[in-house]
From TrEMBL:
Pfam families hit by this protein: Peptidase_M24
Protein name: Xaa-Pro aminopeptidase
A GO MF term: aminopeptidase activity
Species: Aliidiomarina iranensis
Domain Peptidase M24: 209-410
Gene3D superfamilies per the UniProt record, alphabetical: Creatinase/methionine aminopeptidase superfamily
Keywords: Aminopeptidase, Hydrolase, Protease
């Protein structure tokens, strides 16, 4: 285990004076990006859904060796995967909604619904109207007619996103199916994870825009337009972020938060997080924020750092510049460990080994993103567990997946009498099978509040 002082004396191992991080991008405002009105979001969202169902789902069902996939849920208890499968505008599963994906002999997948209220395209209604008993009978009749060998249902011990079939619905399904078909029900967890984690090119195009919006609002918040040193509180800034996203009609998936580190408030080497202080922001403070929004179904997760200049300062102290460069270098070590087929645990182990070799005191807790801010796929460390994560950490890395490059480094700052500062970074990225690309660049320069 490296100590804070050890990190301070050896963190130059990667020759930071000659290190120039790539993919850095400065975004100053969300006004640099357009935002579609809700009505105008329907067409592109449905186009992306249709493309996924036509081109992606058949391949993933074949990989999962499933002949049929059932997504059965009801209002107020929607399956987590449901909203990634239905056209917009959809706000709930009306009464009981049944989606049936049936693989045909040519490998294509027909999309059927057994619903009181038909969904319309891209689904063909196999039954509508009638009462609930008739609906379940119609589903059983359809399954008998199709006679699939392996029927995927959304039950899972380890993946909450793949565990959307409630016990009551599971029991009812077993009641209506003949015994020979009951034995063909299998967990669809592999299919669900792959469906949720895989990104299409059309999604990536809009994803970069969504991440740019998130970074732009952070830049606005971390400026003198919002922060008056000695008067503005961290909560004031957090609520600015919340209200600004609301103004842009961008839903947040968690409450933004803002914290500070300050000279004289010690950061212990073994503390998981050091930027936990809240209250009035003062000159000389190091600020941190964490925000997450969703736009056109793509969710972001972003953490960035800012510095509040003292009256006599025109720039960030060199020690803080060095610490941010170390954070960028840690990101490079992590993303350089991304290799198709490697598990999350293997990527974490490689990152830790190389970070320690270079004298960087780091913690890695990176996760997939997409339809959810915390999406399924390979877990690469946990903030409270830098060892192996069973099951989720064993999941392999696939191409065409998005990841939130999240973690932190600690480094002593000479200008603060060698007090340790924690640099906490999180940037949304995309793995194309060969390299990691940041969707809207990454923070390589400090936000400055004058």
């Amino acid at each position: 285990m490296f100590t804070a002082n050890a990190c301070a004396t050896t963190s130059q191992a990667f020759n930071e004076s000659e290190y120039t991080p790539t993919q850095g991008r400065v975004i100053t405002s969300a006004n640099e990006f357009s935002v579609l009105q809700h009505r105008d979001r329907i067409a592109p969202e449905n186009a992306m859904l249709n493309e996924r169902l036509e081109t992606l789902l058949p391949r993933l069902m074949a990989e999962a060796d499933l002949d049929m996939w059932l997504v059965i849920n009801r209002e107020y208890a929607e399956d987590p995967v449901y909203f990634s499968l239905v056209p917009q505008p959809t706000f709930a599963a009306r009464r009981t909604t049944m989606l049936i994906f049936n693989k045909l002999e040519d490998g294509s997948v027909e999309r059927l619904s057994v619903n009181t209220y038909p969904l319309g395209g891209p689904y063909e209604s196999a039954w509508s109207g009638g009462d609930l008993d008739e609906q379940w009978a119609a589903l059983a009749e359809l399954i008998v007619e199709k006679n699939p060998e392996r029927i995927g249902i959304n039950v899972s011990k380890h993946w909450p996103e793949a565990d959307g079939l409630t016990q009551g619905m599971h029991n009812r399904l077993a009641e209506v199916l003949p015994s020979n078909l009951q034995n063909r029900l299998v967990p669809a967890e592999d299919l669900v994870v792959r469906w949720l984690e895989t990104r299409t090119q059309a999604e990536l195009d809009v994803y970069a825009h969504a991440v740019g919006l998130a970074r732009g609002v952070i830049a606005e918040a971390f400026s003198a337009k919002v922060i008056t040193p000695g008067a503005t509180t961290t909560d004031d800034v957090a609520w600015y972020l919340r209200h600004r996203f609301e103004e842009l009609q961008l839903p947040v998936w968690f409450m933004p938060y803002v914290t500070f580190q300050r000279e004289g408030i010690e950061c212990a080497a073994d503390a998981p997080f050091c930027s936990t202080n809240t209250g009035v922001i003062q000159r000389g403070d190091v600020l941190h924020t964490d925000v997450g929004i969703c736009y056109l179904k793509m969710c972001t997760d972003t953490q960035e750092m800012a510095y509040v200049l003292k009256n006599h300062e025109n720039d960030v102290p060199e020690g803080l510049k060095s610490a941010l460069a170390t954070g960028n270098r840690w990101q490079d070590i992590l993303t350089g460990s991304f290799v198709t087929g490697r598990s999350g645990n293997e990527i974490l182990a490689a990152t830790r080994t190389e970070s320690e070799r270079q004298g960087i005191l780091s913690s890695t807790y990176t996760h997939p993103i997409g339809f959810f801010g915390h999406a399924p796929g390979p877990t690469i460390g946990m903030w409270d567990n830098q060892g192996e994560t069973p099951v989720n950490g064993d999941w392999p890395l696939y191409p065409n997946t998005a990841h939130s490059i999240e973690g932190n480094i600690k480094q002593a700052i000479p200008e603060w009498d060698n007090q340790t500062v924690q640099i906490m970074l999180e940037q949304s990225s995309y793995f194309d099978g060969e390299r990691v690309l940041y969707l809207a660049g990454r923070q390589t320069q400090w936000h400055l509040i004058r």
